[in-house]
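User: Assemble these into one structure.

Assistant: Restating your components, then the assembled model:
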Amino acid sequence: MSELLKLNNIETYIGQYHILQGVSVEVKKGEVTVLLGRNGAGKTTTLRTIMGLNPASKGSVVYKGEEIQALPTYTIAQKGIGYVPEDQGIFAGLTVEENMKVAIQKENEETNKRLDYILNLFPDLQKFWKKPGGLLSGGQKQMLSIARAYVNDNELLLIDEPSKGLAPIVVEKVMESILQMKDQTTIVLVEQNFMMASTIGDCFYIIDDGRTVSNGTMKQLKEDEEMKRKYLGIA
Amino acid sequence: MELLFNLTLNGLATGMLIFLLAAGLTLIFGLMDVLNFAHGGLFAWGAYSGIWIYTTTGSFLIGIFGAILTGFLLGIITEKWIIKPVYGNHVQQILITLGLMLVLSEMLKVIWGPNQLTANPPEYLKGSWEIGDIIIIKYRVFIIFVGLLVFAGVQFLLKNTKIGLVVRAGVMNKEMVQALGINIKKVFMFVFMIGSGMAALGGVLFGPYSGVIHAGMGMEFAILAFIVVVIGGMGNFTGSVMAAILVGLSGSFMAYYVPELSLAVNMLLMAIVLIVKPQGLFGGKG
Amino acid sequence: MKWIVNNRMNAIYIIIAAFLFLLPFVYESRNMLILLTQIFVFAILAMSYDLLLGFTGIVSFGHAMFFGIGAYSIGIFMKRLEPTMLHFIYAVLATILITAIVSFIVGLLTLRLKSHFYAMLTMALAGLFLVLAEKWRTLTFGNDGFTFRVPELFIDRTNFYIICLVSMIAVFMILKRFTNSPLGRVLQAIRENEQRTESLGYQVLHYKIAASVVSGVLAGIAGIFYAMSLRYVNTSVFAMDITLDALLMTIIGGVGTLVGAIIGAGLIEFAHDGLTELAKEHWIFERWIIFFGIIYILVVIFFPLGIVGTLRKFTWIRKKQHPAKKKENLAG
């Protein structure tokens, strides 16, 4: 399998804070790569750096063989990278329908098909089609955010902590939907919920203090008690 | 009864003029976080260029379109060369737009001279209708009509077009709009252009309404527009029209009953809003 | 090394001050005296503005309001009562009281919000004061304004010149002290990063209001001197032009430096004077303010540090390069 995305020793500053101090990640096509690590380790910033929201000051981001670290966010998104931020980034005053309309880049058969698919996956969105995004429940917001990222023909989805603040039953639903989408697209997932991460993920990277400190397949991680204790605080 | 009616009509007309200025101000602020202190200058430029074209060609309609075009052009220039270099720096932005205000008003004096110009409504908008005791001045009705038309047009644009949706989305979350593959800089330019066009339209309509125009009028109206933007909620388009009507009406009634206090009352209203509900009287952003 | 540089700066200041003190006794030009007095007065205004903009990062568009309060206070006291020193002191106290209260209220209302609000509210309030001065004819005589007499001490132009010069130097030194004090350091921390300052446990709002009050009071004092220099006051003291002058002086001279405000005041007043002369030659110079507007915009975009700030940056870079050069020499 070939790499779709490659981060080479990325360093990123936010203001004067040196958040990422050397993050290297390889994302293989068709796989779910999970970024793990403590709070504040730099997982979210890694996704934001890929999107160009916090551009890297050193290192390179290579997507499909092209360096994208210096491109503006909207160009990166147009290249086929969908982003589901930690706070979901729902336009609260816009209805579900309008949220989707803003997201859709090209209106054609293909997009309509994807829209139908995602609405079948998340029937709640269809139910609240004309309701303002701000009035949705946490889980529904998550679904809307995922739907927005999915509806364009994106080859890569960056999903930041989809389970955060959701009830266990909703987490399961979101997890199922990501598992379904897994067949069609490559995913980079930031996740604190180890159950979810280990179920969905194919391989993992651990980020600690702004550096990638370890990586491997999910199977390896599951068996490595030492690693889990050291970086993830689970025994 | 007649008095009440006329004061109301007058207040509504003034309110619509303030709305045309405040609407652009609030949209630009909501989307770009830029408070354009030069907006009053665009209002004055609309008045001068529009009235000049109107007196030269003899057609009020051409004058109006000329003013809007001037507004568009100045808006594009302002965004590209004055605002863009200092995006993201609040203090610099505030400072630079005031500098632009200064240059714009002085330029008016350079081109059209320092004295005020007179302006009259065209024949078909002169005079008034009389219904019983009530005298309705045509031109005021015309202003209200145009104001409502612009409001409806912009509302339609915001609700039913893709770019309108993007503008509203951008007011709520700029970053996410870009992460969805939209070049927000282009949207900025568009909104700046529309906002400036509306301000210029307000200016040219104001000309025949007051009878004279002068270079300082931009600043006077800008202050009212700021009050409206605060009361209506910064970034809130529908809030701005309601607040503009409120300020217009209170101005018109106060000017009749206690003229000394007319600005003071609006200021007081703004101060109260700032204390109680700094996000504006009419809900949050949206 | 550092204290030599500092002392050198102080020595330059002292020489210039001494020169200005001696000037009226060696060079007798009434016009020059009046112009310099005007510069000192506006330097006080510009420095008060710099405290807000340069040291705290607050933009006021209504500084004329405080200036005008001072000007009208002195005018009204001198006109209504006898022009004695006692009444002069009353006027000063009244100015301090009113400007302090107004700036406190404005600060309380807007300084917890985004910076736009302070700019907007001050601008609108200044507009309100302008209207008030126009309408309250029994007290202000409306647009025409009124003349008044000043206490004996201030009648002589040379005396008044010295008094304004001393006041300017005093304000400069007080503000220098103030900005270097722990409180001043907090203000600068606010300018650099408000949230961080807040999270360090400082009540940012209190500090910002303090800066707003000090600045307002000093602008009021400048207004007193301004009105006394003309012995006349009208509504123009509340006009936007005064605020713009303060803004131009501070920005062009260099924000956050205090000296910049003085230099800016000198430049603008001299240029104002010169261009008014030129206006007799060509009408375009009547619109002199347009040149300043353009220069101002260019300065904000390209030299946001102003004259003094830009100069300092260069000397600072030079100083930084020295050790590197030495190393090269050693290596060679």
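DSSP finds ten helices and ten strands in chain A.
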